[in-house]
Specification:
With 396 residues, this protein is α/β, with parallel strands linked by helices. The protein has 13 helices and twelve strands. The protein has helices at 5-11, 60-76, 97-111, 130-144, 168-184, 201-212, 235-245, 259-263, 302-310, 318-321, 324-338, 344-369, 373-392, and strands spanning 16-25, 31-42, 48-54, 83-88, 120-124, 193-197, 216-222, 225-228, 255-257, 269-272, 291-293, 314-316. The strands form two sheets. A seven-stranded mixed beta sheet has the order 9-8-7-6-10-11-12, sandwiched between helices. A five-stranded mixed beta sheet has the order 1-2-4-3-5. The structure holds glutamic acid.
């Protein structure tokens, strides 16, 4: 990019890192102390914005990295936001609903000084959902003394959420892949063999929407393993099965495989939709797909990225491919501030417009600079943030 070293220095570390300690009364009467973080990377383009994850693997470095990725993602799809991320080190599988609520409310109280509808707006991520967002909104609203819809996004529709938010990340993944196939290969999704790692909110909806468009979903997996079926998996049945049991193990619609098998299975498109660093240098040489669509944040390690590129595999990078979620978060925030709510047709239409525009910009930049899509996406995103930082100048 020929980036001035000043901006590299300004943007390579977050603006604010808050660590909080959250004592929570457990159901058995004991008190457990949970560590949480909220990292605000940059707000040159607007309020800080990004997800909140509840996961045992959360640590300060991870949250810092994800906050920076969020800055680039929000800039790439041209939302008027900066980037942030939050996390709490906990295992939700071991928490009761009441414990999870008390933890959420205490975390909200602890990060209260730095969040707000015009300051920093959390949203769902790994281990959090609409219910967690509802508790955050309620806690914040109680503390400021007024109902505050704009403090979080990803809220349930009954509480000021947006229709289409739940499927939004998966829909964005579908839009980007479809646009890529149609514009650069003059092809269609019809009959394309797709394997998807992760069957949570992102993976499930991506699978469902791609299946609807005629793609053949040959592999799906969750944390415990997955299934493969060359003829295509019945995604609706798998969805029902997964919702009931919270795992795909023993789902009868295909052969049982490991997560490693899934990443290296025979397919045209591989969609990592779980967590970061799953495609590493050990796995990358064995990937058979021609296209990797990064539905998770940071699923490919830098070493794997190089290996995949050397193999001629096209990577549609995370900050482009999974930006549908935060885009509909933006729509939700706007609707809440306006007190005027859109219908599903409008949400889907505007999401597609944003994703198509972002893909076209990245594609054009990749052509112009003769580079891969990740480099092109970063060049555009960092360029936009740098423009805002430069125009604002230095205070005081
Ligand atoms: N957690 C999502 C992401 O990684 C959504 C963030 C948001 O909606 O603010 O992009």
């Amino acid at each position: 990019m020929g980036l001035d070293p000043l901006y590299r220095a300004l943007l390579s570390s977050p603006k604010r890192v808050l660590t909080v300690s959250c004592p929570v009364r457990m159901d058995d009467g004991t008190i457990q102390v949970f560590t949480g973080y909220r990292v605000q990377h940059n707000n040159a383009r607007g309020p800080f914005k990004g997800g909140l994850r509840f996961d045992p693997a959360v640590d300060r470095d991870e949250v810092m990295a994800l906050a920076m990725l969020q800055t680039w993602k929000n800039a790439l799809v041209d939302l008027p936001y900066g980037g942030a991320k939050g996390g709490v080190v906990c295992d939700i599988k071991t928490l009761s609903l009441g414990e999870k609520e008390r933890l959420t409310r205490r975390y909200t109280a602890e990060v209260m000084p730095i969040i707000g509808p015009m300051d920093d707006i959390p949203a769902p991520d790994l281990g959090t959902d609409g219910q967690v967002m509802a508790w955050i909104m309620d806690t914040y609203s109680m503390m400021v003394g007024r109902q505050s819809l704009g403090v979080v996004t990803g809220k349930p529709v009954a509480l000021g959420g947006s229709v289409g938010r739940e499927e939004a990340t998966g829909r964005g993944v579908m839009c980007v892949l479809k646009r890529f196939v149609e514009t650069t290969q003059h092809g269609s999704l019809e009959g394309m063999k797709i394997a998807i790692q992760g069957f949570g909110q992102v993976g499930y909806h991506a699978a469902r929407l791609l299946d609807e468009l005629g793609a053949v979903i040959v592999g799906i997996s969750d944390a415990f393993g997955g299934i493969y079926n060359e003829e295509g998996i019945d995604i609706e049945a798998a969805g029902l099965y997964y919702r009931e049991r919270r795992q795909l193990t023993d789902f009868p619609g295909g052969d049982a495989i490991t997560n490693e098998d899934l990443l290296t299975c025979e397919c045209d498109v591989l969609i990592p939709a779980a967590r970061e660093n799953t495609l590493d240098a050990n796995i990358a040489p064995h990937v058979q797909a021609k296209i990797v669509v990064e539905a998770a944040n940071g699923p490919t390690t830098p070493e794997a990225d190089e290996i995949l590129r050397d193999l001629g595999i096209t990577i549609l990078p995370d900050i482009l491919a999974n930006a549908g979620g935060v885009t509909v978060s933006y729509f939700e925030w706007v609707q809440g501030l306006d007190n005027y709510f859109w219908d599903l047709t409008r949400v889907r239409g505007e999401l597609q417009r944003v994703m198509d525009r972002a893909f076209d910009a990245v594609n054009a930049k990749a052509d112009e600079a003769d580079c891969d899509y990740r480099t092109a996406a970063y060049t555009i995103a960092i360029g936009r943030v740098v423009d805002a930082v430069r125009l604002k100048g230095l205070f005081p």
